[in-house]
Amino acid sequence: MIGKLNHVAIAVPDLAAATALYRDTLGAKVSAPVAQPAHGVTVVFVELPNTKVELLHPMGEKSPIAGFLEKNPSGGIHHICYEVEDILAARDKLKATGARVLGDGEPKIGAHDKPVLFLHPKDFNGTLVELEQA
Amino acid sequence: MIGKLNHVAIAVPDLAAATALYRDTLGAKVSAPVAQPAHGVTVVFVELPNTKVELLHPMGEKSPIAGFLEKNPSGGIHHICYEVEDILAARDKLKATGARVLGDGEPKIGAHDKPVLFLHPKDFNGTLVELEQA
């Protein structure tokens, strides 16, 4: 069912410093910051040859990563995203096994303008998993 | 400097259950468990089309992930591994910027029989980073 690892998302307390770290110290190709107010984050994309790392910084009052950064002031890996071909089929299969889909269970349009769902970390080895329809 | 994302390592409290989750629920291709006594872990490799997820379970008294699982009983993402072409050049460049290399700073032979180093999470947005010479 799952295909490629689409990205690893890292919440960072200082987006400029994290961008410089990946660009200058680690020598990776990084994007300009992309504001995503609908998702409550500003994102810098780190382009690796086979996948992406996304550096996430809170944007606005209701950012979904503000609480994470309060608990993890240095930052940390926030979630991983796997691609699926058919997100509704994936959701139904997962729900049939008892896995919990976050929110109302309906796919939302994610940061890449594709349908996404998030799965409960407790059902996936303490790991917040995003599924994105590729 | 960094190349491909070689793997994402997830520490899991129950290796059989985590393997079944990735194989049966998420529909991924998984390996048999591989004992790595020198690294204090048993590993199941989840083969994705573009990279790997490694499910790590403690092996032996001095496992480097036992403490992590004590703090995170459900499991969690333990580290991410980036490939580099020349690990000594990478290390020297990183040290020159003030980034801390764990241990004595000399590359060790890692789980894939290639030289690896680990970088201090506090210097990398709360993320334990492994570098592997590809």
From TrEMBL, chains A, B:
Q: What class of enzyme is it?
A: isomerase
Q: What UniProt keywords apply to this chain's record, in alphabetical order?
A: Cobalt, Isomerase, Metal-binding
All copies of the VOC domain together span 4-134
Q: Which reaction does it catalyse?
A: (R)-methylmalonyl-CoA = (S)-methylmalonyl-CoA
Q: Does Isomerase show up as a keyword for this record?
A: yes
The record's EC number reads: 5.1.99.1
Q: Which PROSITE patterns match?
A: VOC
Q: Which biological process annotations from GO are given for this protein?
A: L-methylmalonyl-CoA metabolic process
Q: Name one GO molecular function term.
A: methylmalonyl-CoA epimerase activity
Q: Which PANTHER family match?
A: METHYLMALONYL-COA EPIMERASE, METHYLMALONYL-COA EPIMERASE, MITOCHONDRIAL
**NCBIfam families attached here?**
metmalonyl_epim
Q: What is this protein called?
A: methylmalonyl-CoA epimerase
